[in-house]
Amino acid sequence: MTDSTPTTLTTLTTLPASAAIEETIAVVEAAGAVIIEDFIDSATLDGLWEDLGPALAGQADGDGRLVGEKTRILPGLVRRSARSVTVMRQPHLLGLARHFLQRPVRAWLGEQRIEFVPTIQLGISRAIQIQPGVAPQGLHRDDTAHLRTHPGPESRVQVMVAASEFTARNGATRVIPGSHRWDDERGPRDDEAVPAEMRAGSALLWLGSTYHGAGANTSGEPRTGLSYAYDLGNLRQEENQYLSIPLDVVRGYPEDIQRLLGYEACPPMCGLYELSDPMLLLRDGQG
After folding, report:
1. Which of these CATH numbers, 2.60.120.200, 2.60.120.620, 3.90.650.10, 3.40.640.10, describes 14-254?
2. Mean pLDDT of all residues in the chain?
3. CA 6 – CA 19 distance, rounded (Å)
4. Record's InterPro entries (predicted)?
């Protein structure tokens, strides 16, 4: 899946939350990204603001090194808000992650060939707020965190939930549709990027290999998004969930969420605890 020629896609597809997962997958296969309207309902969004808003307001703007100037980032959303469960379980996000990441790998064990299906795990959960006057972010691929080369298998599926309206003027995330098909010799250009304009509660979903970046905020108001990403279970998490979320908080979540946080061994043998599934740690009360 590689193409070093200029992209021919100039728009982002928007689908309703009621769209079939298969339709969402087809759009992302072609474009590397999709917008889902009403990704979460207004009650969930209001609750996330209630849980996260005060801490985000208390964050200092970045200094231009790890965090950009006039940009606030609040990490560890799963620790800070149990309403993150709604985002993590959202069918379009989970459906894309399972389709693109959980692809079987076959390996020989002696004379027997065995098929392994990797797990997925939460790689990041963070609020990102860009202030008025912020410059556009450089277009990039998020799977650079995993030192991926292209073409190659996907390692991440990410979502940006619009906690406030996203417009071209206030710095909506810009995406180059079709750029997930490019090899590593093809660099991104700003004139190829399309702003992901959407109302609050909607979301942009994209692959780790898709070029994107925040736009310039030339409005008078901040633009806020909530970003969560699923990564392959055999990779190092960008945000260390084991240190970010205390065990007593993890134990309060349902088992499917615990496993998505990384408390699950990835076949054939990554992330074991006492030569067994890490769920043993949560069940026996250790730690």
Report:
1. 2.60.120.620
2. 94
3. 29
4. Phytyl_CoA_dOase-like
